[in-house]
Amino acid sequence: MEITTQMIKELRAATSAPMLDCRKALQEANGDYQKAVDWLREKGMATAAKRSDREASNGVVEMYSHGGGRVGVMVEINCETDFVARAEKFRTLAHEIALQIAASSPRYIKADEIPAAELEHEAEIARARAIEEGKPENVMTKIVEGRVEKYKDEVCLMRQTYIRDESLTIEKLILQNVAAIGESVIVRRFQRWELGESTKEE
Description:
Helix content is 57%, strand content 17%.
């Protein structure tokens, strides 16, 4: 079946795929529009898998030293392309996140990284405190849940209040930048050191 320019244009309008991919999809599908759409979707999924590899390799490792070398932070922040990794807006965001880590000492990036045993321990502390304060039994569960959530806000980078703007969390700050940059931004990992602090092994 002959693949016309009109057919390619229609497929491109519907899928936003590149012209060459639209032509190839129609050729592969022997002119069947629906099969061509499916072919492009499958190809798109393969491209997305490649993109996730690319996301991991672009970005910046930002280093920040605070208080005359008393606190040091190293954070890896990823984006999709090298072009964005070199952009001032992305570099500024990476620096701001390093500042946040230095100032607010998060222990995790997201709440789902907190071990269950640690959350249970915090819940026990919250329950004991609520009993000590004489809180009634019927509101105990709500109080404990509230305090555990507050703990997550303190130890998780994404849930922390941004040090420069109390109306924003770090997650919202990153989302604002994603909208401006036009690429996904991922905080991959971080490490914070403070002079004289004991290590976990000690």
